[in-house]
Automatic annotation (TrEMBL):
Compositionally skewed regions (Basic and acidic residues) per UniProt: 125-165
Domain of life: Eukaryota
PANTHER family (UniProt xref): LRP CHAPERONE MESD, MESODERM DEVELOPMENT CANDIDATE 2
UniProt source species: Bambusicola thoracicus
UniProt name for this protein: LRP chaperone MESD
Lineage: Eukaryota, Metazoa, Chordata, Craniata, Vertebrata
A GO BP entry: Wnt signaling pathway
Subcellular location: Endoplasmic reticulum
GO cellular component, as recorded: endoplasmic reticulum
GO-annotated molecular function: low-density lipoprotein particle receptor binding
Region span, Disordered: 1-31, 117-165
UniProt record similarity statement: Belongs to the MESD family.
Amino acid sequence: KDDDIEEGDLPEHKRPPAPIDFSKIDPGKPESILKLTKKGKTLMMFVTVSGNPTEKETEEITSLWQGSLFNANYDVQRFIVGSNRAIFMLRDGGYAWEIKDFLISQERCADVTLEGQVYPGKGADGSEKGRNKTKPEKAKKKKDADKNSKSSQEDNRATKQREDL
């Protein structure tokens, strides 16, 4: 049954991996290894739009980027996942770093996340880091939750007298 299907038509997970030419790998650049290992595989990257855009603005801005990439013969699909976030899906992950370089050079690109690595874009505000900004808020919420849990524990103590209504 599987013998009738040509190798190129098989689903990605059933295709044999492309052979890696180790002579092209630069030991000083770990990205070169990733480029070769991702060649021919589907890859996704997250892109954050700078400023405080609405979902419609994010749609318009990322649509322009997708159009520019399409004109440069890059097959990229785009999915909006938040008011300022989008996923760019590439059929061939070998081109991901070239696309990342294009995206981070755009005025409204805050950052690009590729293979777990965050690359700041031209639109990133140096004083405002998205990850650092969210951590203090979470810590504050946790402190508030701890205070609330302590007060609720005090309310549940048998020694505290409660007024009957």
